[in-house]
Amino acid sequence: MFKASTVFFPSVAAMRSREWKHKTGYTYGLHGTPTSYLLEERLATLEGGLQTLLVPSGLSAIALASLSLLAQGDEVLLPDNVYGPSKALAEGELKDWGISHQFYDPMDPRDLARRITDRTRLVWLEAAGSVTLEFPDLPELLRICRAAPQVRVALDNTWGAGLAFNAFDIAPGLGVDLTAHALTKYPSGGGDVLMGSVVTRDEALHLRLKNTHMRLGLGVGMNDVEAVLRSLPSIALRYAAHDRSARRLARWCLDRTEFSQVLHPAFPDAPGHAHWKAVCGGSSGADQTLEGRAAGLFSVMFDARHASAQVDAFCDALRLFKLGYSWGGPVSLVVPYDLNTMRERWPAHLKPGTLVRFSVGLEAVEDLQADLEQALRHVS
Ligand SMILES: *Cc1c(COP(=O)(O)O)cnc(C)c1O
């Protein structure tokens, strides 16, 4: 493993001739070492791109893309169900720096089309949506963005992880310009590393992002890179295992009267199910609990007759599901959310109630199901 801040050069001539922008010129730890170059190459391959930049967290990947591609007077469009801290960045620093934003309805492509103007420079996509897991019509959203040549399209690829679909080839001739990925989740897989990546296919775009990356000093630690390199070879197996367990538990939840809705894109009545099928390989007819690919997340809507205190009691009563943020690690997690504080308006496809999101880990499904069952006894 190559760990360094300082890199020794054999001669002044070598020092002067090495160019930090190219991987052949290993110059200073902040710009990476052969160890991080290896992870960058593997992530580009995983996501179907050509170049990767590593950053200290998934959120800094989002920030890097926005700070690099937006300037005063520009506008960025975000889906209303975007990852929460990304919304906070738009409402905080971006706004302070004269960059405006609008939130579009990810399930209504016409709403996106109406909001694109000459000032729009960046459109963020997220599939499935954060917390509520709607799957948008990615090909249609991309077609709308492509009709405006000044618009760059970025996708938060954390849910799909490069495994559920190829963001750079979503439909023939149609792909995003860049992906931001919280490596904290599935690529790390351990719940013990924070890291993010920005993957691109276009060299000029990569260089623009790389310049910003350098100027902001967004280097990563090589011990963390090594941890992700060790986990990455098992990502496909782990992703499939999380997916399988999540669908079995979500299916079990369908029969529980406490829940008015179970939100998982592979389920036929989930918002955007047809779009998920088209992009993630689900097929109708066969067993919908096995077809296609999805992450190990699902949410339930506790029927509105349950007070939020009862929902809190349910979450507190869970033993295997731990209360905690993030996902993609071995331990199952649960978080209750107050959607009213998170969305511009209550999404039309959601019933009233209190939402709880589960991230399914790698424990035995039977044990997780028993845990849900015992905790539900605390609700009534
Ligand atoms: C977790 C997450 C992020 C941010 O990742 P961090 O490494 O925690 O900063 C971004 N987007 C999505 C969809 C996430 O789930």
What's a quick, concise take on this entry?
By secondary structure, this protein is an alpha/beta fold. Helices cover about 35% and strands about 15% of the residues.
Q: What characteristic shape results from the CA principal axes?
A: globular
The ordered string of helix (H) and strand (E) elements is HHEHEHEHEHEEEHHHEHEHEEEH
Please provide the count of β strands: 12
Task: Examine the coordinates and then state which fold CATH places here, giving the name of the CATH topology of the largest domain.
Answer: Aspartate Aminotransferase, domain 2
Task: Output the radius of gyration.
Answer: 21 Å
Uncertain runs are: none
Q: Into which percent range does the helicity of residues fall?
A: 25-40%
CATH superfamily of the largest domain: Type I PLP-dependent aspartate aminotransferase-like (Major domain)
Q: How many separate structural domains? A: 2
Ligands in the model, by name, code or SMILES, are: pyridoxal-5'-phosphate
N-C termini distance: 55 Å
Strand order of the main beta sheet, please?
1-7-6-5-4-2-3
Mean pLDDT: 95
How much of the sequence is in beta strands? 15-25%
- Helix tally equals 12
Question: How would you classify the helix and strand content by structural class?
Answer: alpha/beta
Profile the largest sheet: 7 strands, mixed
Please tell me the CATH architecture of the largest domain by its name: 3-Layer(aba) Sandwich
Organism: Hylemonella gracilis ATCC 19624
Keywords: Lyase, Pyridoxal phosphate
Family: Belongs to the trans-sulfuration enzymes family.
Catalytic activity: L,L-cystathionine + H2O = L-homocysteine + pyruvate + NH4(+)
